[in-house]
Structures are given as C-alpha cells and as structure tokens.
Amino acid sequence: MKIAILGGDGFCGWPASLHLSDLGHDVVIVDNLSRRAIDTELGAESLTPIRSITERIDAWAEVSGRTIGFHHIDIAQDYDALLDLLTYGEIDAVVHFAEQRAAPYSMKNSRNKRYTVDNNINATHNLLAAIVESGRDIHVAHLGTMGAYGYGTAGMKIPEGYLDIEVPTDSGERVGQEILYPSNPGSIYHMTKVLDQHLFAYYAKNDSLRITDLHQGIIWGTNTEQTARDERLINRFDYDGDYGTVLNRFLMQSAVGYPLTVHGTGGQTRAFIHITDMVRCIQLALENPPAAGDRVKIFNQMTETHRVRDLARLIAEVSGATVEMVPNPRKESAENELHVVNDAFLDLGLEPTTLSEGLLHEVEDIARRYADRADLSKIPATSLWTKEQAAGAPLTVG
Ligand code: NAD
Ligand code: USQ
Questions:
Q1: Does domain 2-391 sit in CATH 3.40.50.720?
Q2: Distances from the Cα of 190 to the Cαs of 12, 116, 184, 196, 289, in angstroms?
Q3: Where do the domains of the chain lie?
Q4: With a cut of 70, which residues of the chain have pLDDT below it?
Q5: Is the dihedral of CA 80, 282, 231, 243 positive or negative?
Q6: Where is the NAD-dependent epimerase/dehydratase domain (predicted)?
Q7: Each residue of 92-107: pLDDT tens digit?
Q8: Whose CA is nearest to atom 1 of ligand 2?
C-alpha cells in the first residue's frame, strides 16, 4: 500500500511511519513541523534528542534500506498542496495524526483555543474535501480520543463509538435508533475530536468515504522495535506540563528525582495503550478498512484503564519515588469509573502489552539516560481551566 502519514514527525506518527515502512509499505510523511515550533514557543524540548525530519528519514534509509518520502505541508492551510498529493500521489490510505493534541496547551488562552480549533477542524475537513475532489478511493484512519466520551462515570461499558437507544415516537410506540455515543469533551482539544466525528459521519454518508476513527487512550512508552534500532531514529519524549502525558511524566519524574505530580485526589481513571500496541493497531486498522457506503468504523484503541493515584503509587513502590498531591489545574471530576469495550482490535488479533514492572523500568531507563537534558522548571502543569486565565490572568496553579 502507499500510505500518507499526516503528522508523521510526531510522537505517534514517527513510530507508525517506521512500522509501516518496515512491513514493506510505501510511506510518505506529511507534516508542517508545527509541533517542533511549539517546543520553541514553550521553551520545552523533547527529553530525548530527536533529529530533524531529514536526518531521521536518511537514518532510516541507511538502517533499513527503505525510503520514506516527506512533504512539508500545512494541511489546515495549504489545501492545494494536499489536494495535489492526494490526486497525483497514488495514495491508497491516509493515517491522520496531524492535529494539536495537548489539552493543557489548548486551554492556555484564547489564542491557543482558536489555534487548536482552526488547525484541527480545518486539517480534518481539508483532508475529507480533498479526497472527494481527488476522485480517488482513499481509506482514512484518524486518531481520535477516548476523551470524546468524557470522563464521567457512565455506569456501563463504553461501546465502540455507537450506542443503541430507544425513543418514543409521536404515536406512542418505541423505536430503536443507533446514535454516536453522547460526547462530553473535557477541553477545547478534546472538543475538536468530537467535531471531527461529525465531519466523518457526514462524509461517510454523503460521499461514501471509507473512514476509520480510532478512539485512542493515553499512549505510554517511547521507543518501538524500529525507533530503537539507531539513536538517530529515537522517538520524542514529552514531559512538560502541557504536552507530557501522565504515565510518561511520572516515569520521567521518578527518573530525575522529582515528586510525582498527582492532580487533585488522583481519582481520575483513564484508558492507556503502550506505544508498540499503537503502531500495531494502526496496521490492523489499515488492513481492515470499512467498505464504501459503510458507516464510520470506530475502534476503542486502548488496552487497560488505571486510576492516576494508583499509577503514582505503583511507580513509587517500584522505584522509590515520592508522590505529591498538587492542586488540580483542570476542571474534571474528582473521581470516575471507566469501563471500555475494546473487542474490535482483540478480535483482529491484538495481543495487549499491558503495564508491567519491566516496561516501567524500560521507560524510566530512557528518561534517566537523557536526564541531563531535563529542564525541571517545565514540569509543573500551569495551564488552568479557568475564565480568569482565558482573560489574561497570570498562569499560576493553586
Ligand atoms: P504530536 O503533536 O507529537 O504529533 C502531531 C504531528 O502533527 C506533529 O508532528 C505536528 O507537527 C503535525 N501537525 C499538526 N498540525 C498539522 C498541520 N496543520 N499540518 C501538518 N502537520 C500538522 O502528537 P501525537 O502524540 O503524535 O498525537 C498524534 C494524534 O494522536 C493526535 O491527533 C492526537 O490527538 C492523537 N492521540 C494522541 C495520544 C497521546 O497520548 N499522545 C492519545 C490519544 C490520541
Ligand atoms: N494528570 C496528573 N498529573 C500529571 C499529569 C496529568 O494527575 O502530572 C492527570 C490529569 O489531570 C488527567 C489525567 O492525568 O486527569 C490524564 O492527563 P494526560 O495529560 O495524561 O492526558 P489528556 O490530557 O487526557 O491527553 C492525552 C493526550 C491526548 C489524548 C488523550 C487520550 O495528550 O492527545 O487524546 O490523552 S484520553 O485521555 O484517553 O482522552
């Protein structure tokens, strides 16, 4: 297959590109390098020393003998370049990772809210409109989020995207309907993924586009079999208060001797998936596309759930780290239960890589190796979910 990886320079996109290339697919990366620009804006770098996109691609060619193409395109802004690629590039499938993905970054101020909405919604809509205009039959696999469902307690296992309901008709009968599971996003970022869902439903219905939406949980880990082959292929490792996600942050904090920053009571339960399973899920999704005319295929791309304070406790136990309960900068329930259906990937043969002491140590070891690159002042989460912050108040927690 010829596969375009939109956002292929990012944390998920880079290892997914290498995995698919390694399987023999013809991979082309499309990225505007905005994530690297945001690093500069925030003064926060990946803990691991990631190479430039051209160095990465050259190193992969040297190590594997395989070529990966690169197009520097802003897919939210440069529609014509995207259309050109899709029309003449002989692309069979697109994996769409190219969005601003940090909830705290999206909540920092109105500029970031507007950027996140403009970037993510235009990126997704440009892609869908361009596929229709290209006249080609291109399967889209998009990275959505478990956060589209929200983090209340559902009282049921969250299904894979759709919910069967019964509604009373005007004549008093009850009829069955299938609806998208009610959304309840917890940040502007998560809201853009909810809006994406409706764009997908429309284009699948109106234009018979073949679309898979992967409702992904929090990724943890850093390297995959391919990125570990050469230091020049190393994946990014975000640990700062905006882009660092909880489990990788805790492992990095433990490695550098910083108390684990549990927000509030740590009662939030979230869905997780290891990075090596993420790349395998992308492969499985591409190998099992929906047919033209089908509804959007939605998979819950997660393998386990954990409560934040339990993760902190576990890491403290295995590594001797200390835990600090800090005021929660976010607006989220103090406690939630989370039970999720993930049968679609299991049925396709996914064998989950779940949390184990060995894997926790592996990530911590990587963090320890690059500990001298860490800027501890970037660890606290300073983006607040308040109106005052949006109105320009200084960014302080507590
Ligand atoms: P990332 O920020 O590391 O990578 C995103 C990439 O997309 C970056 O390289 C960025 O430069 C590029 N990009 C952004 N806007 C673009 C545009 N307009 N044009 C071209 N390129 C653009 O993020 P990630 O962690 O790799 O996440 C990838 C996707 O997976 C996101 O859509 C995210 O919502 C989703 N996801 C991530 C996680 C996670 O834990 N990291 C969990 C669930 C879902
Ligand atoms: N948290 C802490 N301490 C920290 C960091 C986070 O207690 O130091 C808590 C947060 O308050 C939250 C939970 O951990 O309750 C998860 O936060 P996170 O930053 O790890 O994850 P989130 O903001 O939800 O976003 C990440 C990715 C996003 C993806 C999402 C999947 O950045 O792109 O969509 O995970 S999910 O969470 O399943 O919606």
A1: yes
A2: 17, 10, 9, 10, 25
A3: 2-391
A4: 390-398
A5: positive
A6: 3-292
A7: 999 999 999 999 999 9
A8: 246
